[in-house]
Structure formats: C-alpha cells, structure tokens
Design goal:
The chain is an alpha/beta fold. The protein has 10 helices and 7 strands.
C-alpha cells in the first residue's frame, strides 16, 4: 500500500468513527421508539428534516407504482440464485428489511455495521429466534474487516455512497468477494447535472454531509474497474423533478398521472450507460476476478 493509499485509509477510518457515533445515537433512540426517519430524528438539523419530509412524501407514490416492490424482488431474486452461499450484508444496522430474506437464502450470513448499539440489538433478535448458528454480526468498519473466507455475495443497500474514496471502497470490496461472486447494491447517483446541482445546494445543511457522497462519474469508473454490471434498473432521470410537485396539495393531483407514467417508464427501461442519469440505481454486479481465475 502506497503512502497516499495509507493516508486515504486512515482518513476514512477516522471519519467512520464519527459516523458510528451518529448511527449509534439513532439506534439508541430506536430502543425506546421505532426510528421513523430523519424527519423526526433529534440529531438531524432543520434542513435535513425538511428534505426528509419532502423525500418521504414523494416516496408515497412508490407504493402505488411498486417501486419498492420491484427493488425488493430484483435484489432478493438474485440472492435466491445464490441459495446456500456465503453472504455479507454491509450496513445491516439493527436488521434491515432485506436481512430476513437474505438470512433465509444464506448458508452463512455475516452482517457488519459501524453502530455497536445496532449490532447488539440485531444480535438479541437472532439469539431469540434461533438463527444465531448461521448468523455472524460484527460491530466494526468494513475497511478493517478481514474475514477467514471470502464471500459469494456482497449486499449493500444505500451504504456504498457513504465512502468518499470509491477507489478505496471498491478495492476493499474486491478483496472480500470470491471469483465469480456478485455485489448487489442500491445507491443514489448525481451523474445527472441537475441532481448534482440540487444536492450541492442542499449539502451544506445536511447533518450527515461528511459521509454522503452520491455516485459520480469517478465512482462509476472505480466500480467498473473491479466489477461488471450484469443487470439493473434506475428511476428519477425524468420523474424526479416532478416528484416534489407530486407532494404539493392541488398541483400534485394534477401532475400525479404524468409523474407516475414517467416513473413506470423508467422502471421498465433496459440496462444502458444512461442508468447513471437516474437519481437512484439498483444493480447486480459480477466480480471481475472471475475473468482471471
């Protein structure tokens, strides 16, 4: 490892310690009441709460159109193809909505998260329901994780954009996956200049701005250096500008049919390089190591 790489790693690990504290606070709050998102999170500032409320409002339309269901089916269907395999869920927190079906598919499941409080809560659940024998939970930093054996499947939902250095990230992920293994992920993208501009305006007000790095063109190049995108879909390229209007009383009801029509078209679009112009992408990627082994 070069001196520059070592400095990048040290910087990322130090930042992740701050991130761990942030999510620990969220998890501790969850011990007393269910976490309802940043809109009501005491650790989030005013602008973060406003942004979250707008985001949650347009997500209501997702249920009508089946966006979340399409994402769930895509990711879990790929997990089922690796039934009995060795899985790593990155950013498992207290157990995500994907954790249970992944554990069901897995021969062995490892979950890793920065928050010790979240991991402790997740551990209590698997101990109680008898799944602890095939579940290993780790409170720690992905960048420092060195498993005894590589994984068949890496799973990350809304987690990979928390790493500023995607070269460092994908190099690490490449070291964790077996030749022929896959990475499943869903991440925000700001390759689209409009989305990049909007996020730039909002970023100074984010409570979690230090570890929020939606994918850009460099992120994509770094990913493709280590992984080949096999399948995927995205949404938001054309529908996102209408998503906020959709949540406005009166105007929203008028614009809703157009918004939903655009969203459905995006979901049904075939995989292409333009996928990164969407605001969110969902991917299945094969490790490039398969080509050399």
């Amino acid at each position: 490892m070069s001196r520059h790489q070592k400095n990048e790693l040290d910087k990322a690990i130090e930042l992740n310690k701050k991130q761990a504290e942030f999510y620990n606070n969220i998890s501790l709050k969850d011990d007393n009441e269910e976490f309802t998102g940043y809109a009501r999170n005491k650790n989030a500032n005013f602008m973060t709460k406003i942004w979250a409320r707008l985001r949650y409002a347009h997500q209501d339309a997702f249920e009508d159109i089946g966006v979340d269901l399409a994402k769930l089916n895509f990711l879990i269907d790929h997990c089922k193809k690796k039934n009995g395999a060795r899985f790593l869920e990155i950013g498992c927190f207290r157990g995500t909505r994907f954790s249970d079906p992944i554990i069901e598919c897995a021969g062995s499941y490892t979950g890793i998260d920065l928050s010790k409080s979240a991991i402790d809560a997740f551990q209590k659940k698997v101990d109680k329901d008898g799944r602890a024998k095939k579940v290993t939970l780790i409170a720690g930093d992905l960048l420092e994780h060195v498993p005894d054996e590589q994984y068949d499947v890496l799973f990350a939902h809304g987690v990979l954009h928390h790493f500023e250095s995607t070269e460092l990230l994908f190099d690490k992920l490449n070291s964790l996956v077996k030749p022929g293994g896959i990475m499943l992920c869903a991440e925000p993208s700001q390759v689209n200049r409009l989305f990049k501009f909007v996020r730039m305006l909002y970023r100074p007000f984010q409570s979690d701005k230090d570890w929020e790095w939606p994918f850009n063109r460099k992120s994509v190049r770094d990913l493709e250096k280590y992984f080949t995108i096999e399948s995927g879909f995205g949404w938001g390229r054309f529908s996102m500008p209408l998503s906020l209007i959709h949540s406005v009383p009166g105007i929203g009801s008028i614009m809703s049919p157009l918004y939903k029509r655009l969203l459905k078209r995006e979901l049904s679009s075939k995989l292409s390089p333009d996928i990164w112009l969407n605001s969110t992408v969902v991917l299945c990627c094969f490790s490039n190591k398969a080509r050399n082994n």
